Amino acid sequence: MDELPVIKTRRKGRSLTQSMLIPSEEMIARALWAAPPGQLSDIAGMRQALAEQYGADACCPVTVQRHLVQISQNSTAPFWRIVNPDRPFARRMIGGPERIRERLAEEK
Hints:
Blueprint: E1 6-12, E2 16-22, H1 25-34, H2 43-53, E3 58-59, H3 61-74, H4 96-107
Parallel strand pairs: 2-3
Antiparallel strand pairs: 1-2
């Protein structure tokens, strides 16, 4: 873990704050490679694990989605292990839901 995490404080409700991890694309790629091959993992679980790993309360979902789209375009990590093909977000990936299903089936 030679990369310094970016953690920002943001408001949560009227009087609370929370620390938000802004993950790098490399952090997301490492998490994707660590996901079990051939099965769909939970994206929310991945975000929570990243937040805990870096000592934050939460991990930015928008940044994670942007990185996943970029990773699908560059084919640098197995994004299909975390993107549910039945959710609308899957259409933003290169090849769409069909490619995600195919890649998951290939890994089984």
